[in-house]
Amino acid sequence: MKKILFAVALASLLTGCATDHGAYLPVNTTVNNVEDMAGFVLLNQALQDSVTCTGIQEMRQPDGRLQLQVNIRNRKDRRIQVQADCVFKDAQGFVVEETPFENVFLDPNAQEGIRFVSANEKPLRYTIRIRPAW
Questions:
Q1: Mean pLDDT per 10-residue run, the chain (134 residues)?
Q2: Which CATH number fits domain 38-132: 3.40.50.150, 2.40.170.20, 3.40.50.12780, 2.60.40.3230?
């Protein structure tokens, strides 16, 4: 019994001495941080050769909601399926609203339009995200 108590006391003493000193700043904060600066991003590297954005049109509806019309193009000679969503953000870049991902079918070398509308007038910025549908 004394050996067990000694082992427990020794273990707690050793772990108590191993402390970290101070706070640290994060490193590489700009690596993979495209979503904070770009209006259109691909969430998978494999899509870089397949999908591109040919234009984004933004407008305000009469009630103040932000409406986006996005044109995406299939750069391949085969039909592909992707999923798209929109993250609406306030002036500081904080998420106000996020739409669910929706399936988009792109014919070979075709362009398709997608429309997103915010639920209220709060969003000032946005990021449209495209991911593979596999």
A1: 58 58 77 77 92 96 96 96 96 94 96 96 95 89
A2: 2.60.40.3230
